[in-house]
Amino acid sequence: MTPAQRSNLGRLLNPRHIAFVGGRDCLTAIGEAQRRGFRGAIWPVNPARSEMAGHPCFASVGDLPEPPDAVFLAVPAPAAVGVTAALSRAGAGGIVCYTAGFREAGPEGAALEAALVAAAGDLALIGPNCYGAISYLSQTALWPFAHGGDSPRGFGAAIVTQSGMLSSDITMTRRGLPLTHMISCGNQSVLSLEDFTDFLIDQPGVRAVGLHIEGLRSIPRFHAVALRAAANGIPIVALKTGASAIGAALTVSHTGSLSGSDDLYDALFARTGVIRVETPPELIETLKFLVVAGAPKANRVAGFTCSGGGATMLADRAERIGLSFPAVPDTLKPGLAGLLPPIATVSNPLDYTTPIWGQADRTGPVFDKAMDLTGAAAAVLVQDYPAPGLDESAGYYHADAGAFLRAAQARGLPAAVLATLHENIDPATRDWLAAEGIAPLLGIAEGLGAIRNATLWAERRADLAAAPPAPLAPARPMARLRGLDEAESKALLAAAGLPVPAARLCDGAGLAAAAAGLTFPVVLKMMGPRLAHKSDAGAVALNLGDSAAVLAAAQAMPARVAAYDPAAVTDRFLIEEMAPKPVAELLVGLRRDSEFGPVLTLAAGGVLVEILQDSASLLLPETPERIGAALSALRIAPLLAGYRGATAADREALLAVICRLQSLFLSRPDLAEIEINPLFACADRAVIVDALIHVLA
Fold first, then answer.
1. 431: domain range?
2. What pTM does this model have?
3. Phi-psi domain of 123 (left: phi exceeds 0; alpha: psi -120 through 50; beta: other)
4. What is the DSSP-derived secondary structure letter of residue 149?
5. Do residues 448 and 314 lie in contact, with contact meaning Cβ atoms separated by under 8 Å?
6. How many Cβ atoms are within 10 Å of 50's Cβ, its own excluded?
7. Does 321 lie in the same domain as 237?
8. Among residues 244, 245, 258, which one has the least CA distance to residue 675?
């Protein structure tokens, strides 16, 4: 996005005048602009009509009184290119190109889209093939269908989606999410999701940004924008759809299948502090909590219900997602017990029981004391309000909610009133709570997930401020690749100072002499271009104690390999000293992804790769601290730490090997992939037992 396009995007979203170019679709769009409350000039453009929606029509964009700040364009695709060129020459601000029939329609449409981009110049063009844009702050709608949404207090969440229908659905939600902007970005031919996000995080009133992502046009650009958002204190919440099972071109290794594109999006989001959610309700509830209540400073929540079942549901869900409800210390329980009925049990979450329900003079002190005794950084009260017509008891609910919000406000705690069932907070109560800065959350899973998401964002933001990640290493186009065999791969690694077993490479006739120069026991491996996975082919013999055993293994091996693949048999062997028994086996893979650039994958190694599917991927370059954290997140981490009193691995040596592999990979652009499987994590060292490297041919 150029500076001129950024300025024009500001004009588009805060226009003085809007031109609507087209026919029937523009009638609806004009109605939506008026419904939204747009007070500027409306200029329909249609040579076949004298008026549209009560506004006189202009025959062409060249007849407009002045260059329009904003344009809603709904004419056939070929005509859209010419209109766009005319608007660009005239100095218009921006266009919502509702018109479809471009890249999504095939080669002819792709050519039209290229022409559209060339015609746009410095225009801020949204689309084509999109619903458009709504600014709830400037009361501007460039939108082709009925829409909802509001920003009653002048702040909220800005949302950018790559799905038109989802954007429309979110505007219609009755969950009480205040919105500042909605942008449906369509084909992103001129401006991309990254551009819109970069613009929105600087806009007054935008407290969080929600994204629906199918794919990103530029991973490095998104990386930079997301880091800037975190530095500005603007959370980004992403609903990523369209997961890919395998994101790597290479299929001979495990690394590609363990680091598909969805895993790499996880790595990107974790690196930049973006909150990933799984469903639209979780997206909305997370944004709502962040916008209305804010992010907790720590993972300590005080929970309140007037039901034992409600307290149990809170505790169960919190344990599953890692949300902490700290217990009241035993020595301090009497102070809280004295404020509760005798039937109540001091706990967190706390069921304060019905004898004091609805009595703010009784429940208020309970909320105050419990928040203090638990050291809460956030608070949640479960309340399901009665349906209309059955609301004789509503005053009791409001009394407790009022006492709760006053206790939270007095302590500056982000807080929520949480309905167990989605529909059980009426609009008036929802709006009252939000006006008081208390998030009205809907659903146990989505509500507690929202609080945990906000907490994780605050923690990650603090980490980013202390140690900002380096810019991503660039992606490189992959040409033809050549695979090195294990002997060649290990020679390359040894030359870089990495630990590999002492070894000799020879043919069958030289086996005895080669073995004599090594310390027994040794391993014998047949080398060949069709033996990437030697264990599967029977091309490995372990624990050979003398030269006679080596010769016997070499005589038996060709038959086993031939049964696997007759063309794989060779007369080339690697003999190497047996590595010491490891504490655990790891896979360490480095590869170049066409979108994300260099990637490091850590996983349980050896035969456990397929069984456990226990892996973590990081985008490079990465710090030793973050690599260490990824190791600690693996399910085999307890083995590395010395499970149940067993010997622990030398973690310092292990990290040193992984970091040296990263340095080698980043310094050698000719390396396409390195896979170490297994890397032995031993008590006193780390040893590369098997390696597979691909280089650019």
1. 294-466
2. 0.91
3. beta
4. -
5. yes
6. 8
7. no
8. 258
Give 415's Cβ-side CA count (13 Å radius).
Answer: 29
- Select from 522, 552, 577 the last residue of a domain: 577
Cα 173 to Cα 193: distance, rounded to the nearest angstrom = 22
Burial (Cβ within 10 Å: 0-12, 13-18, ≥19) of residue 24:
exposed
Alpha helical stretches, state H, 322-443:
333-337, 360-373, 394-411, 427-435
Q: Distance between terminal CA atoms of the chain?
A: 36
Cβ neighbour number for residue 636 with a 10 Å cutoff: 21
How many domains in the chain? 4
Same domain, 542 and 658: no
* SS3 letters across 9-77: HHHHHCCCEEEEEECHHHHHHHHHHHHHCCCCEEEEECCCCCEECCEECECCHHHCCCCCCEEEEECCH
CA dihedral sign of residues 443, 449, 452, 457: negative
Is 474 inside a domain boundary?
no
Sign, CA dihedral 118-119-124-127, equals: negative
- Collapsed DSSP state (helix, strand, coil) of residue 593: strand
| CA 67 – CA 122 distance, rounded (Å) | 13
Rg, C-alpha atoms of the chain: 31
How far apart are the C-alpha atoms of 271 and 223, rounded to whole Å? 8
**Interval 431-481: pLDDT, tens:** 999 999 999 999 999 999 999 999 999 999 999 999 999 999 888 777 788
Residue-wise pLDDT for 1-19, tens only, equals: 999 999 999 999 999 999 9
Whether the CB-CB separation of 178 and 208 falls below 8 Å is answered with no
Copy the structure tokens of residue 480.
């033809």
> How many Å separate Cα 399 from the centre of its chain?
39
Lookup: tokens for 653: 């040596």
The amino acid at 301: V
